[in-house]
Amino acid sequence: MNQMQAGILAPVPENARFISFQLADSISLETTLRAVQAHADGERAVVGIGLTVVEALGQHIPGLTAGPRIDGSLVDIPCQPIALWLWLRGPSRGELLHQERHWVDMLTPCFTRMQSIESFCYDNGRDLTGYEDGTENPEGEEAIAVASVTAPAADALVGSSYLAVQQWLHDFKTFDAMTDAEQDNTFGRHRISNEEFDEAPESAHVKRTEQEAPTPEAHVLRRSMPWSAGNRAGLVFTAFGHSLEAFEVLLTRMSGAHDGIIDGLFAFTKPVNGAYVWCPGMRNGQLDLRALGL
Questions:
Q1: CA Rg, the chain, in Å?
Q2: Which NCBIfam families does the record cross-reference, listed alphabetically (predicted)?
């Protein structure tokens, strides 16, 4: 039976790299994907396939689009499609550097590296603002049900996941200028205790992303990690699901397209890119690429 890539369910690592690629040579695409299939273990390297690759192979992954397009959004939600996505996970920056070198060599010339984001675990899973990330994440069997495709879908899709990934850039000067109360109200939680307010403002992040509020409920599995490059820093937001519908419901609420109320986070942070990819399941120790005709 197909299983999810193990890295999706595992706790976030101490260090990671999020790497995105563009398709450069479709002639060698099938051969290169065969190499990816054999090399990826789904744990140290989680792999995602973008719409560009799916279309180049003449295939169709139900519900997969290039990236977020929120009609009526009151804020800018960038969409930067990618062809191939890697989440390299490891204990040290040096090990990840060598992993990335190996992957880039293997993927050339079929794919060209578009972006590499160095990320890390901060304060036991908190965002760089000091607030805990992914507080309401599902666990165990619930996490599998939320984050992966299950029967009665086509066999080649079982165990796979849909991923929404966005890089958010924080404006720490603006955030630091807020009072403690203003910061807490932005999130709808106390930073120290992580306790949610009984009556948070309607713009609070917990209200905008309340997964039980929509009908049907909009649950996702978050595996976000902080990133930094020089004096720029923020959060690489990742949301895995059995489809992209739940994420789009939440982003619609955050962006103000639902009721005109914008998530308070936009006062100090913003997404600078965003894309959707499909993460195949594992079958007999390898990525299951049957849905791509491989």
A1: 19
A2: Dyp_perox_fam
Beta carbons of 277 and 49 less than 8 angstroms apart: yes
- Provide the domain limits for residue 270: 6-282
Q: Which CATH number is 33's domain given?
A: 3.30.70.3420
> Is 127 an active-site residue?
no
Residue 274 lies in a domain: yes
Instruction: State how far the Cα of 232 lies from the Cα of 234, in Å rounded to an integer.
Output: 7
* pLDDT confidence tier of residue 212, bands split at 50, 70 and 90: confident
Q: Is residue 292 part of a domain?
A: no
**Residue 216 pLDDT level (bands cut at 50, 70, 90):** confident
Number of domains in the chain: 1
**Spatial distance between the Cα atoms of 255 and 284, rounded to a whole number of angstroms:** 41
Predicted pLDDT at 85: 98
What is the distance between the alpha carbons of residues 287 and 46, in angstroms, rounded to a whole number? Answer: 10
Does residue 112 carry a pLDDT above 90? yes
- Whether 113 is in a domain gets the answer yes
Beta strands in 40-110, from DSSP E residues, in sequence order = 45-49, 84-90
- Do the bridges between strand 161-170 and strand 269-279 make them parallel or antiparallel, or are there none, so unpaired? antiparallel
Q: Is 21 helix (H, G, I), strand (E, B) or coil?
A: strand
Q: Is residue 288 part of a domain?
A: no
239: its two tokens:
């949301």
Average pLDDT of the residues in 46-70: 97
